[in-house]
Amino acid sequence: MARRLIYTFILLAFSMLRLSAEGIPDEAAGRFPRLTWGAEWGYNASFCTGWHYNFFSSEGYRIDERGKNLKYKSNAEVYLHVGYNLDRHWNLSLYAGYAGIGRYGKAVPLSLRMTRFFGNDTMKDRWFAFADLGSGICIKRQPQEIFAGKAGGGRRFSLGRSKLDFIVSAKCTYTHTDIIYDRLIVPENMTNRNEAYVIALSLGLSLTF
Question: Which residue among 10, 91, 112, 147 has the highest number of C-beta atoms inside a 10 angstrom radius?
């Protein structure tokens, strides 16, 4: 699973670089650069988590547990991104990074983000909205896939060629977690289901070149 995600990342990054190599317009001539890249930092405040566990105890009987928790938990996330400006209003970017998932540990997410910018002048400050969807792997003894979606918007401040974005968004992550029973981690061969989801609000800061 992890190898497949890495291959996908390399293929998409190569495709974007190939498109940009066909000719990047000159911003000084009234046009705009096609290729974009940069980094993003974020703070996540998760407020709703849910889980469904089904496993065998050390005594040999099956346990099925479902629950929901509205407790607050804070996490951080950081991403690197490479993208392509389809025109003055639309950008498609690939994001890869490292993020916390509520109380369920850390993950390496990989996603595609489509962003819509409002306003025609790429050299001026602009509002924007975006939707982000992707997968990745959770970091635990036996890594498994995650799925995540994010939607939000913010304000882009133009610093010339570089851009500074302030971002507000809502995020939902589906993950697999280690099951703790009697203060011990339940082995994978005794686990039938270990699903969990986390809903969070995010504040972010992004620098794009």
Answer: 91
Torsion of CA 168, 197, 75, 132, to 10 degrees: -40
Q: What are phi and psi of 194, to 5 degrees?
A: -145, 55
Q: For residue 194, what are the CA distances in angstroms to 42, 62, 69, 118?
A: 27, 13, 16, 42
**Three-state DSSP class for residue 12:** helix
Q: Residue 111: which residues within 8 A CB-CB, separation 6 or more?
A: 94, 95, 132, 133, 134, 135, 136, 148, 150
**pLDDT tens-place string over residues 46-102:** 999 999 999 998 888 899 999 999 999 999 999 999 999 999 999 999 999 999 999
Residues 6+ apart with CB under 8 A from 151: 129, 130, 131, 132, 169, 170
User: What are the CA-CA distances from residue 138 to residues 88, 132, 178 (Å)?
Assistant: 36, 18, 10
